[in-house]
Inverse folding.
């Protein structure tokens, strides 16, 4: 099958052409669609000039942009901080447009300002998760040919431990020799945004891969605006009086969009907090009177029993993403708060959420429908579209899509112009999309296909179960055996009788052949920093 190649790129505004030079070959790009009028961006575009400079120029300088533990910044103050950092990048660090800058820090205003400054200066932001260690950082630095690092002082050890660390400035410890703040103090002048092309790469976001070399996903200036103009605009109805709050790190595109870009796009405010637990997130919602909350399903599950005691009247949208939302969690959250959760599937390759539903559009059990701006379908193993009610590979396209930095795996993610996310999904006659499992996590036991998520869903309805993960364990007789790892609620003791009770409970809830033949009790589930269950650790027995 032949496809028209995407339109030629416009002239780059960058001096250093590394990112463009390492885009995948055009024939391997997904199709891009800009079907909505709000997605018609000009050829010259700097996303921070739009998000920040224009907001201030329109008279919004005195509005609050960011709330945090230690400081609150107006749009004008955030702009001034961004400009100072941009000057430091160019003058003190001697960087030029197109250079890559690695960022490392927990969620706070200076970390946000650093990311925005890199983009505004026409450099390429490479945000990294606070928990990454030197060996993982070394791979990213090498892959993206990072020219400098902006790092929270408290996280510098892993950079210092590198054999050949790039030049680094640290924030949060102003007396250190390589502190960012005294250098910022030298630059009071406004910084003119780099005259970048809408299709110049501004962000390389590394996927939270489990093994091997991490994949760097490359995104353009226009992409960062496009995600603001799809999900938050159409599904959430984001507006200037919203206050966005949540847990995902800014280094995860879920957090970058939800807590920084989305609020800035509509003149609203983001709340950036460094360490959050179910308790403290609920308290923070009350304290900042947050209206929109972003976190992972397991967080909502843990918050539900605490929610009755919290003051949550300000909340109007609670968004769950990162992994499948169990129906039991949606129900528990609704019972506790009266709120119908917004489930949304997003991916680093597509930057943010592309299938979701809110309000009376929610169909429990389904993720939702394609977000305006995106289209989706279900493909079989040969890349042909399948009809309703058949489980296949989820495929999507829209204004954003997968462009891996110099990576052979581009061929796996993009099939005939579709982004194939690696998720097994099914569509109903009304166009709703239902998550089943990761394509490679489908359990095949004695010839049956069993989606781990469905068994988890059943187990979560048992009153003794706090959390659980269900995987396929290799088995001589059945090929794979359904095995459940169960975390019990406080005060409940594990026992063989309870294991049998859980098995019986599943058999009564869903088709009996799906019940977990093995039940193991553990203290906590292995999760990534982004809240995803690490099934490979359950399978390998690493979780003990
Ligand atoms: C899974 C979901 C079922 C799914 C992300 C919102 O998670 C994000 O990006 P990642 O690259 O992972 C992508 C994969 O995660 N997933 C995410 N959301 C859901 N599965 N239901 C969901 N609601 O396997 C997907 O392929 O880490 C999420 C916004 C930005 C993101 N980067």
């Amino acid at each position: 099958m032949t496809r028209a190649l995407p339109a030629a790129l416009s002239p780059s505004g960058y001096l250093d052409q590394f990112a463009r030079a390492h885009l995948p070959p055009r024939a391997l790009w997904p199709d891009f669609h800009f079907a909505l009028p709000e997605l018609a961006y000009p050829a010259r575009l700097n996303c921070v000039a739009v998000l920040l400079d224009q907001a201030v120029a329109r008279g919004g300088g005195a509005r609050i942009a960011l709330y945090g533990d230690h400081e609150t910044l107006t749009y004008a103050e955030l702009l001034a901080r961004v400009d100072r950092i941009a000057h430091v990048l160019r003058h003190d660090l001697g960087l030029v447009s197109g250079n890559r800058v690695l960022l490392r820090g927990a969620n706070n205003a200076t970390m946000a300002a650093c990311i925005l400054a890199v983009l505004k200066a026409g450099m390429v932001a490479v945000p990294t998760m606070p928990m990454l260690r030197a060996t993982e950082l070394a791979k990213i630095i090498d892959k993206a040919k990072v020219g400098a690092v902006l790092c929270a002082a408290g996280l510098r050890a892993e950079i210092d431990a590198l054999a050949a660390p790039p030049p680094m400035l640290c924030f949060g410890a102003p007396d250190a020799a390589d502190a960012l703040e005294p250098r910022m103090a030298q630059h009071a002048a406004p910084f003119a945004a780099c005259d970048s092309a809408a299709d110049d790469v501004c962000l390389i976001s590394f996927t939270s891969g489990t093994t091997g070399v991490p994949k760097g996903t490359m995104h353009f200036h226009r992409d960062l605006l496009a995600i603001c103009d799809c999900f938050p605009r159409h599904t959430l109805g984001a507006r200037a009086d919203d206050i966005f709050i949540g847990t995902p790190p800014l280094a995860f595109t879920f957090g970058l969009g939800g807590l920084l870009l989305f609020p800035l796009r509509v003149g609203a405010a983001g709340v950036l907090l460094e360490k959050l637990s179910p308790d403290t997130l609920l308290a923070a919602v009350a304290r900042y009177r947050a209206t929109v909350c972003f976190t992972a399903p397991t967080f909502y599950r843990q918050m539900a029993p605490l929610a009755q005691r919290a003051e949550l009247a300000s909340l109007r949208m609670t968004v769950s993403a990162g992994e499948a939302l169990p129906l039991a969690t949606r129900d528990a959250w609704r019972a506790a708060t009266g709120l119908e959760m917004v489930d949304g599937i997003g991916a680093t390759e597509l930057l943010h959420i592309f299938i979701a539903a809110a309000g009376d559009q929610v169909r429990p059990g389904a993720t939702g429908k394609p977000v305006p701006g995106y289209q989706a379908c279900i493909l079989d193993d040969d890349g042909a579209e399948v009809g309703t009610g058949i489980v296949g590979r989820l495929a999507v396209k829209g204004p954003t899509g997968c462009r891996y930095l110099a990576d052979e795996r581009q061929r796996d993610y993009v099939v005939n112009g579709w982004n194939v996310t690696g998720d097994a999904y099914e569509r109903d006659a009304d166009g709703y999309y239902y998550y089943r499992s990761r394509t490679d996590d489908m359990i095949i036991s004695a010839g049956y296909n069993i989606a781990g998520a469905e068994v988890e869903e059943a187990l979560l309805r048992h009153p003794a179960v706090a959390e659980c993960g269900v995987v396929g364990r290799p088995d001589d007789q059945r090929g794979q055996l359904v095995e459940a790892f169960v975390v019990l609620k406080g005060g409940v003791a594990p026992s063989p009788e309870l294991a049998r009770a859980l098995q019986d409970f599943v058999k009564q809830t869903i088709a009996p052949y799906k019940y977990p033949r093995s039940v193991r009790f553990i203290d906590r589930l292995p999760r990534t920093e982004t809240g995803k269950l690490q099934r490979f650790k359950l399978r390998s027995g690493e979780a003990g």
